[in-house]
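Dear colleague,

Following up on Tuesday's group meeting, I ran the structure prediction for the two-component complex that the binding team flagged. I've pasted the input sequences exactly as they went in, so you can double-check that nothing got truncated or mislabelled along the way. The structure tokens for the whole assembly follow below. Feel free to forward this to whoever is handling the docking comparison.

Inputs:
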Amino acid sequence: MATIKDVAKLAGVSASTASRALHDSSMISEATKERVRQAMAELDYSPNYSAQNLVNRQSNTIGIVLPVRESQESLGNNPFFMQIIQGISSVCSENNYMVSLASGRTDEELKKNIETLIRSGNIRRIIFLYSKKGDPVFQYVKKQKNIACVVVGEAYEKSAVGIQYVDNNNIQAGKDAADFLINKGYRKIIFASTDMDELVQAQRYQGYCQSLAEHSLEGKNLTLSRIDSQGNTQHLQALLAEHPGIQAFVACDDIMAIRLQRLFKEMGVSADDYAILGFNNSWVTEIASPALTSVDIFPYELGEKAAGQLLQTAKQDGRSAAVIIPHRIIERESTPKLEQ
Amino acid sequence: MATIKDVAKLAGVSASTASRALHDSSMISEATKERVRQAMAELDYSPNYSAQNLVNRQSNTIGIVLPVRESQESLGNNPFFMQIIQGISSVCSENNYMVSLASGRTDEELKKNIETLIRSGNIRRIIFLYSKKGDPVFQYVKKQKNIACVVVGEAYEKSAVGIQYVDNNNIQAGKDAADFLINKGYRKIIFASTDMDELVQAQRYQGYCQSLAEHSLEGKNLTLSRIDSQGNTQHLQALLAEHPGIQAFVACDDIMAIRLQRLFKEMGVSADDYAILGFNNSWVTEIASPALTSVDIFPYELGEKAAGQLLQTAKQDGRSAAVIIPHRIIERESTPKLEQ
């Protein structure tokens, strides 16, 4: 394994000059830097980041924070997370950065794991894959010094320094989803969610409400559990009984849309009786029956952009505005034009 | 943030004694170690692992290697990977270890990313989430010094030092799956795979072949692409035309089972015309139509066990036999008893 001395020798400079060139010091001419870079490439030199970490007090690693899930399965269930991680990874790979994961079954466990990343791993760049109101984990990270943080999700605190947001315009996406159904002829449209504290869901609901209000229609939210299928059936049946004439559902994501299809099936109701639209445009839309209309939010691009923002921060240390990744409705069978 | 000096002061020992106690030195009595441990807990002391990494030349991080996938989506599609990662994470969390990910769209990219983990991150403990014959990435890792490696998958090279295997008994699982269908009355049973170089699939196929041979039945493998749905339809149609009387499919995993259901639907064939059985018992089994019988292979436990083995290695540095996680067939609607 080549050392900085080997690099210096090949480049015909002193070890300290080579080291300065490596760290892009303004004391070194561009020509010398280029010579050192070429020698590094030729020798396949890789700086010892552990040593640099000690000096810089930060590591070339991005920490990714997954949302807390009680159940072992629910994260795996949502392809969104693996796709966004792959987007982050590809950018890290290009920049010789590493990716570390923090997850937990409780807020406490997740906080402890992030603490390990920050304190033991010297990780100073963190991406939150969720945005949740009053989240104690995020509050903890915000209090730490010298952390650059990108939140994939809605900015509920615009003012924080060192924190950037990468997101879809979820209000607009919710509005577009409801507009789409209204244009298809539906009037009694329900929003189905799991947790309104998750800002993605709250924002989509807000957009949905805007659309319905503009069309002088009444909106209603149905909250279902991610796990308890027994209670879910009762909630759905109660809703249908109390509000006769329901025609369509905007589901907070594809998983919820599939859950609705399954609940209808269990209740002996044809899935064709209700239009359903989801979000994420994940692969499950294709296996849904009927195939699911869904709003694509481009998670891979979200991940790429989040990592890109974070690595830019590392260089510029400036604050930039929230980055918005566009969305697009992908129409399938679950939202036919309503026959009048 | 507490330092080792603070810990030493509270424990009433010298800093060097506290440090030795922290590293479990045999020079220090158990009573003193206990006092130091209590002081550490009280002060919430966390050793600076970057400094330790430099000394130990290895970090308190487990590197997880994901299989190469050309498409951005296919990893996210398989809930198996996120579940196994969560199992690894939970054990790492308990042991104050961190988790890093290496992924790539090509072998070259993946190799480069692992190189960064080993050379720059000083990571010496690696878990491969797949086992693939002649894999250049695994060959690269094997050549590195002082790497402890756990492969989640079949051991195709039994002799390697420093490499352990955690797996299901996939031959037995394949045999059990075929036995199950045969006991239900099926005789013409096809195995559906994507890539026989992946040892999980090859082993399940081997077990399937054993079962069919024991019952004097003929086995046949159908290879379908993970992506190309047009070619898949043609392959499936050709198979059904060439081998009339096909009754059932053992799919290499749940995703493949769902793919078959979808292909049948596209071809206008009722999914009820063929029995289908998958592997992984992932959540998609429930939304499949009909609901899918599947072999549960307990990925969370696989992840827990893989991380456990690796951390044990770190202490014992001995070689232990492959660990086998039991499997279980979960029966649903897709494999009814065949009416004679």
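The two ends of chain B are 74 Å apart (CA to CA).

Cheers,
M.
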